[in-house]
# Entry
Amino acid sequence: MSLPRYVLHEVRALLAVHCMKLCMAARPFEGGDRLKDETYKRFHGLENHQSVQSVLHDFMTGNDVYAYAFDFVEFNSVEMEVDRADDESYQRQLRPRHMLVLKEILHRDPSRKICQHDFTLEVIANNNHTGDKLTRDILYKMAVKASENCEHALKHYNLYADVHKNDPSGLVLADMLEHVLRKMYVEFKGCSEKPTSKERKNKHIYEEEDMPETHVFQGFFAFAMFGPLPMTGKKWIFSVDKEEFFQRYPALRPAA
# Structure
């Protein structure tokens, strides 16, 4: 089954943000080309940089924090095709006991299951148009845009958390994400990222109830997994206070 385009894009954005965050934590005073280079190396795990662990590989294997992105499903419930009948016992010996299925709270489509085998390293790592590895500039732009969108989403989360802070059940991740998605859908005029001033003028009014079931903003996977109510239990720094952000990462402050 082909991988939905929005899921592919979100996985790339999630991993790009993760790589950039790792690099920024290791070298908070470095930005520009150095940050782009390190983000690229973290993403692809280049052969000539064996000390750099590929975040892409971690995702593909459900390793470390990416175990929280998947459900582990028994493989005996999944039919596998074999070329010949006498190969069946051999295939069973090689078959892993479990397969990874992307959590529905991320892909938001109850009508389908997106399995580990729907992802390939090549598909995620390559540029769709050229077949080449995603460049450092593309990855960096993905990471910056997704981070900016997460900062927008954080504003909606803060309001939601303030209203529901005294609820007996506390904050529920699924309910919070649904609320934030609908607010972002209205704010972004149905787009996955903030529309330009011109686009805003040409867009009709969007209502929360109009949001398609599988709609996400760019950076949603990152917000769900590492945001203020993280699936992984680990929070990344998404701040609505730009000055606070630039004090922590001065190399990213735009030139005056």
Notes: The CA atoms of residues 72 and 100 lie 5 Å apart. The chain has one domain: 5-252. DSSP finds eleven helices and two strands in the chain.
